[in-house]
User: What shape does this take?
Amino acid sequence: MHYGHDHGPAADSDRRLLTVSLVLILAFMVVEVVFAVASSSLALLADAGHMLTDAAALGLALLAAWAAKLPARGRWTFGFGRAEILAAQTNGITLALIGVWILFEGIRRLLEPPEVRGGIVSIVALAGIAVNLGVLALLSRARRDSLNVRGAYLHIATDLAAFAGTALAGGLILLTGWDRFDHVA
Assistant: This one.
């Protein structure tokens, strides 16, 4: 009897795509933190925080995909398929908490702005756009009937707007010299 869970080749392929996506996101996040500190950019640091939630989302998605394929046993007669739903919920809560921190830090920096290097901010943001487009291309090949995979895909997609805002802020800083564009972004 088939209960709608596909644990065959498509699920294995999804896990591979999630793994490659996770590695790309983690590698770029490290680069972004380094350049955020070097340029005193809150926008880049905020993007790195968002990338951390992306990494967590992908990591939880991988863990949930693994747990979902476990057979039902003992007290867990329903199996572990609900792990994917819990992973999606955890990702949302984490993103909300980081959003609150970014808002607080943005207000603080608007009141006492540091000098921001707009060129570095722009270059790293453009690289972030490229990395996120690559990850989205990978995840678009996965099954999106899984709430878990769909949530990871949408989570990465929201980064494009954040990186676009950061790139715009960096460009405006270069054009005007007004560092607060970074904090607004």
Q: What stands out?
A: Helices lie at 9-39, 42-68, 83-111, 118-139, 147-176, 180-184. The CA atoms of residues 21 and 174 lie 32 Å apart. Confidence is low (pLDDT under 50) at residues 1-7. The domain at 9-70+78-184 is CATH 1.20.1510 (Alpha-lytic protease prodomain-like).
